[in-house]
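In the design runs reported in the main text, the only information available to the sequence generator was the tokenized backbone. The following block is the verbatim input for one such run; it is reproduced so that readers can re-run the procedure and compare outputs position by position.
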């Protein structure tokens, strides 16, 4: 368990708004000395509070307007075929997110596709390759996103 303070929260808030800010810019925006900002960022990276910095792309601008979550229930699952399923999904370029979940669904993935036909082709390939372990699936397309948050406000 990692304990963060208000200075860490200010730094994470600045990074959440713009991860490309320089240490000097973060220092100016937060009122925290540059050396302290650098030390705290490195410490949070080492503690895995900050897992990575990345760009959030808009798939609709990149000619992939079909952005759909797919939930799977699997059966006859062995360690070997779960590993094969995950390896396939992680290697598939149009599968942009993969997570093992609790509850009704075993896995959730996100597919970015150029159109409905392309989405159907991706799903057909997955379903055919893993027909022996996919019991059920459900899709939910993203129409519009309203919040994309990295949880800075959860720090007390």
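Verbatim output:
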């Amino acid at each position: 368990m990692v304990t963060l303070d208000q200075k860490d929260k200010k730094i994470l808030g600045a990074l959440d708004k713009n991860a490309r800010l320089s240490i000097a810019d973060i220092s100016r925006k937060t009122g925290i000395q540059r050396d302290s900002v650098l030390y705290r960022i490195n410490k949070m990276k080492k503690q895995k509070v900050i897992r990575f910095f990345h760009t959030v792309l808009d798939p609709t601008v990149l000619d992939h307007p079909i952005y759909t979550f797919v939930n799977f229930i699997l059966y006859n699952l062995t360690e070997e075929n779960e590993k094969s399923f995950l390896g396939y999904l992680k290697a598939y370029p149009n599968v942009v997110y993969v997570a093992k979940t609790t509850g009704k669904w075993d896995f959730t993935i996100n597919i970015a596709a150029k159109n409905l036909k392309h989405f159907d082709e991706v799903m057909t390939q997955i379903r055919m390759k893993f027909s022996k372990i996919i019991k059920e699936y459900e899709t939910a397309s993203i129409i519009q996103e309203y919040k994309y948050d990295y949880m800075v406000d959860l720090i007390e």
